[in-house]
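Can't attach files on this board, so I'm pasting raw text. These are the components:
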Amino acid sequence: AQSVTQPDIHITVSEGASLELRCNYSYGATPYLFWYVQSPGQGLQLLLKYFSGDTLVQGIKGFEAEFKRSQSSFNLRKPSVHWSDAAEYFCAGLEGGGADGLTFGKGTHLIIQP
Amino acid sequence: GAGVSQTPSNKVTEKGKYVELRCDPISGHTALYWYRQSLGQGPEFLIYFQGTGAADDSGLPNDRFFAVRPEGSVSTLKIQRTERGDSAVYLCASSSSGGRGETQYFGPGTRLLVL
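---
Top answer:
C-alpha cells for the assembled complex are below.
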C-alpha cells in the first residue's frame, strides 16, 4: 500500500540554524509529492511540490526539498529558520494512477528555540 | 480572493446524533476533497468530487458517512448516528480541475466533538 512516513514527531532547532525534515515514501512508481505547513488556527498551506523534472524543488518561505529515488525520500530543508517557522509540517503523496486523495504522513512538529 | 471556507468552525454533538458539515470551495474550482484529521495525525482522505459527482469515495470509513455536492460548488459532509470516534477536524480542500499535480487549497476545518 502507498504510504508516506515522517520519522520525526518533534524537531527542535535554534533560530538561525539550518533545518531538515525527513519524509520517506512507498509507492510503485514515481509519486507526486508535497510538503504542507499547518500553523495553529491556520489551514494547511502548500510549501512546495514535485512530480517530475529537476529533483531539487524550491518553495515558498525559503524552503526547498530534494527528491531522491534511490532513498525513497523527499526531505524538506531550510538554510536558516525563523521563529515564525514553528508549526506542524506534513509530507504528502499521490500515486499517478491510484486514489485521488493525498496520503499524508503523521507530521513533524517544529519547535524553534530563541 | 476568498479561499476555501467551512462552517461551522466548531460543532459539539451527542453520540447518536446526525451532523452536517459545509464546505464552500474557491470559486470556479471543479475538484473538491474531504479529509479527516484526528488528534496527532495527518489528514486522512475521505472523498473526492469532480463537479457534482463523487469520483472517489474510497476513504469513507463506513456507510454512516455521506457527502453531496448537488450544484458542483458547495459540498456537505453528512454523518449519521455519530460516535465518539468520529471526533476530529474535518478538512475540505479544492483544486482547479482535479489534476494530480495541482495544488489542493485547504479550508480551516470544522472541529467536531462527539460527547
